[in-house]
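Entry type: protein chain
Record version: 2
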Amino acid sequence: MPSKKNISISGGGPAGLFAGIALLQKDPKAQITLWEQNQDNSGGFGLVIPPALASALQKKMPSVWGRMVPHFASWNQIRIFHKKQNTVYKNNPMRAIARSRLLQVLEEEFGMLGGVVVREKFNSNNNADLKIIAEGASHPAQEHEKSYSENQFTWMEADRALGAFLFASITDHAQNAIIHGYPHSKDRSSIIFESNHDFPDAKYIVEDMLNCKVLSQTSKKRFATVARDKWNESDTIFIGDAAHAMHYSIGAGTSQALKDALQLAETIYADAPPCSFQEARQADVTRKQELARLSALWFENLNTEIRFSPTTFAYRLITRTLNLKHNEVQRRDSVFARAVENGCRTWKLNENTVTTHLGDEWQVTDGPSPYPHLLTANHPDGIEDQNCMGYVFDNQEALLKWTLQHPRAERWLWLKDKVSPYNIATCDSICLRGWNVALGPDSRGNLESGLYGQRISVGVLNAGVA
């Protein structure tokens, strides 16, 4: 690791400032300069502070936490407005703070510890021993390291504080959109308007639905997920969104910035090789990016989701990452969980269909697998397929039992039937959401062709649809 005495940081967002503070906490004598070309941080929107981030800040940066507390907006419930009905999911305590306020607090702490902020564009030729890039997802990356969501989104700041975290669906013929909103101060809220179509009047829709005035708005764009191959190059290390941007809908960006900062400081002052920073953080980042991918996929599939009844829509929304299990939903809000259960169809097995309470249907048939050489019997109810990382079931009863135990498992499922791809694509006989599907071989016996291994997100038949 290069000398730890002269360090420059490019980017004055949370990642850069957290890194500067963490490094100065380790070595108060270090010379750390932070470059930020934005002259004004007064604008912007709110950042969600999840409980885990709040706990880490209290423990690792208590003085920062103490100055943040007076500026929090808090809520305890999620409200989902769909088909002119409000559904409330309670006991979800959360905080948010205006991004401008957080940056002010962090800059003050950084300065008190001896850090220097330069309001200029970063000079990559400066003589620092170590350069930290914390410029966010806008920092140049290779094309294969970026992927773009299908939906467009725009951020807005509203002139009133919402009383909860809000989701509101919008249907305009074939064009659908969703609003995400939450308070970030006593009189301001952050609003995200997201859609897979162009809504030129998004601002006016928000103002009308939320009875507010939009004070500022960003341009519309598609979100870019960043997964940089290497987080270090020579004397340079990438952190935060510059290394691993993940979709905003899981609210993990600020948490990941702090985790990066703390781990980077540990790595530098343990004289560990630069690559060990990425090694220490990669597993957590990969897991969070997968949750973000699932969340983004749900919103991209809004044209299907919007057809569900209000309660089912709300349930599928809050469990969209597959990380929140039903027993946890019951623990937090038994009234909501009971409403979901009461509105669900009974689990049933028809001639050739398994229907789950989430509105997914799988058409299955009996019979042994035609590819025994690909399989190993590692599961009591099904056979694990080494090629497609999932389970193959030899009978409907086994599949029913497994789906009861794993109602939202993220698995590959091999459906051993003769349903044509046309029927799947048009929803005539089978409905899937969020599952990867293999229908068996094509006419040449190739498993990899046709629909094998593709994610199918299509409309829903009759299960759970209002």
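Comment: DSSP finds 14 helices and 24 strands in the chain.
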